Amino acid sequence: MEKLEVKSSTHEYKIMIGEGVRYTLHQYLTKKYSSILIITDDKVAKLHLDAVKESLANEKVYVSIIPAGEQSKNIDVFYQLHTDAIQYGLDRQSLVIALGGGVVGDLAGFVAATYMRGIDFIQVPTTILAHDSSVGGKVAINHELGKNMIGNFNSPVAVIYDVETLSTLSDIEIRSGYAELVKEALISNESTFNQLMNIRLNEISKDELKKHLSFGIKVKAKIVEEDENESGVRKYLNLGHTLGHAIEAELSYGKLTHGEAVAIGLLFALYVSNKEFEVDLPLESLLTWFKNNDYPLDIRECTSKKLVERMKSDKKATNKKIQMVLLEKVGKPTVKDFDDEVIDSYLQSFMEKVIR
Amino acid sequence: MEKLEVKSSTHEYKIMIGEGVRYTLHQYLTKKYSSILIITDDKVAKLHLDAVKESLANEKVYVSIIPAGEQSKNIDVFYQLHTDAIQYGLDRQSLVIALGGGVVGDLAGFVAATYMRGIDFIQVPTTILAHDSSVGGKVAINHELGKNMIGNFNSPVAVIYDVETLSTLSDIEIRSGYAELVKEALISNESTFNQLMNIRLNEISKDELKKHLSFGIKVKAKIVEEDENESGVRKYLNLGHTLGHAIEAELSYGKLTHGEAVAIGLLFALYVSNKEFEVDLPLESLLTWFKNNDYPLDIRECTSKKLVERMKSDKKATNKKIQMVLLEKVGKPTVKDFDDEVIDSYLQSFMEKVIR
Q1: Which residues contact A205 (CB under 8 A, 6 or more apart)?
Q2: What is the Cα–Cα distance from B230 to A153, expressed in whole angstroms?
Q3: So where does Zn(2+) get bound (chains A, B) (predicted)?
Q4: Whole-angstrom distance, CA of residue B104 vs CA of residue B109
Q5: Where would you tag: which of A48, A230, A341, B64 has the fewest CB atoms within 10 A of its CB?
Q6: Taking the C-alpha atoms of B295, B299, B301 and B304 in order, what is their torsion angle to the nearest 10 degrees?
């Protein structure tokens, strides 16, 4: 089992990565809680809820199950979870456990952050993608007009990552998760990026997966320790996300997974970087790798104009300038503001020439 | 003008109390904001919005106006304000100004706390009651099942208190505000409490009011500096609030003002304290003072059983025990947990004998 520690602005917390840790969850409760609410989705519940409940047999445990999928990350489900928490009688000494992927983690984390002005929560991620969202304290729900627009910075008291739960992942979920791992390699480490470009996702071994996850979490943890509230280096983690979020919102969440949308965003970030800095980033090899691994790259039902509109209302935008994370080279990210027209023109040629 | 400073866990902020400060608001902007959203209600807008906008003539200013009253502190208005903020193009460098009473302050503060995971906000309180809510960083909206159940701790970057705006307050609002001032005296200072018992609210002078406000804010500021997240002494500020919140919720918010409900809660706290500690707190003189100043004390449409149910789901409750702030003597608060039946029996006799 691997153990990492992250310092947030309010407290330190442990990240445990290992096989079967979901069966020993009770060991990681840092204090006696008056009650525990497990928030999970209907898909994950079928697979892992019993094990987690068993591990908490000596606790007063309640469960709320939401429909799986990004659509659940909305204000109505958020309010319903508050209703559940009140009706179950959760108090300020209660704990929320987020059992699931990024959607469950973001949503349950935001419920915990706002229930009675904040109670403890633990992340139990069950997807590869959630290695990213479960660390760093970003919790949120979506607004119809933008992804993650309503939220807080609120770090969990622990992250319990059972890699066994990843064996049930679908190909789509593996793809989605690996897009973020590729991103973490792109912003930090060329040799890891090159290693990733040499794997095929349908042949990946458990040990490789564990190694990649641990790599991704370390990149993430290091950055959020340095800049929790995203005033500086944390922005680099948004590589691929400006366009990625816009695509997700424009397709109204769920048509592409988060990671799949980010994959297209990564290609666009490399494309723009090449143009802006006159460099030669591995756009072609990344494109090939995405194709070989069946990433869907077709966004023809979106217009560049609408995507630019979405990008303008992104959280990273300032004074309505679109902010993009670019790469001067692999491992060297930077941030740049753009006028709409510039991005629109880049996006049109990108959609016509690169991913068509 | 009086100037106070409060240290929150994240930053220090100033509280300015003076006449006409709403005209000079721009002086208290601590940095250049990309845009400003003033959130206010339809009553306050008519009286003070123009002055505030004028003072911000050199800024990019947007306005959202909500219906006056506690009913606006709900999830729908919260979401609508996020919609406004997105549509106005607010970004992470924007500022929210809460211009109004406690409802506007709590709601706008929570919108600011959650918009793109948090942007700056300034409190510009326009009621006496809001001297309490504008300091200390408690922001929230109500859930149908409980007051202030969904919220954050998030301190403003400044509190600008223009006492001139208080001259337009109705009798009800003056009563509501003074209930919190009486509470602050009860938990901290017997001689101020005695002074308050000698005034009549319809004869109060501007200077007296300023003195009382400044007293109340100092009591509040001292306590929240010591215990921002309410793990200890901050609980004392809830004197009268366990029953007060239950009454407000049971009458479905707005029938009694917050302060009027707290007034009944204060009487109940003194009543229970007298029984529990066998002391002789000034219950009779406070009751007389409330009656002389036209506080509505009739809650016969509530049953003790339902109120006890509400108290059990209060945020201060732990393990479903009802927690009440009591007084060993004036100026010496303490916290005690109760079983339902005990509170129910106290409440029945209180409703029959004291406030009937």
Answers
A1: none
A2: 19
A3: 180, 241, 258
A4: 8
A5: A341
A6: 170
What is the structure's pLDDT at A319?
72
Among A79, A138, A153, beta carbon nearest to B75: A79
Q: Tokens representing B246? A: 């239950």
> Quick one: chain A helix, strand, coil %, rounded to 5?
50, 20, 30
User: By a Cβ cutoff of 8 Å, what residues of chain A touch chain B?
Assistant: 34, 75, 79, 82-83, 86-87, 89, 91-93, 113-118, 138, 140, 143-146, 148-153, 229-230, 312-313, 315-320
In terms of DSSP H, where are the helices of chain A? 42-44, 50-55, 75-88, 102-114, 130-133, 171-188, 190-197, 206-226, 241-250, 258-277, 283-292, 304-312, 340-353
pLDDT at residue A320 is higher than 80: no
The pLDDT of residue A67: 97
Tell me: pLDDT of A14 over 90. Answer: yes
User: How high is the ipTM of this complex?
Assistant: 0.90
DSSP 8-state class, residue B49: I
Which two three-digit tokens encode residue B53? 């906008």
C-alpha–C-alpha distance, residues A237 and B302, integer Å:
54
| Beta-carbon separation of B318 and A149 below 8 A | no
Pair A77, A110: CB distance under 8 Å: no
pLDDT at B356: 81
Residue A84 in contact with residue A37, Cβ under 8 Å?
yes
Six token digits for residue B253? 């918010």
The end-to-end CA distance of chain A, in Å, is 43
Beta bridge partners of A323: A337
Using 70 as the pLDDT threshold, list the residues of chain B that sit under it.
253
The long-range contacts involving A285-293, CB below 8 angstroms and separated by at least 24 positions, are A285/A197, A286/A182, A286/A197, A287/A354, A287/A355, A289/A196, A289/A197, A290/A263, A292/A200, A293/A175, A293/A178, A293/A200, A293/A201, A293/A202
Using a CB-CB cut-off of 8 Å, the residues of chain A touching B150 are 79, 82, 114-115
Q: To which residue do tokens 């060991």 refer? A: A27
Token duo for residue A111: 């419920």
Residues A155 and B210: their CA atoms lie apart, in Å, by 41
Q: State the pLDDT at residue B320.
A: 74
DSSP symbol at B318 = B
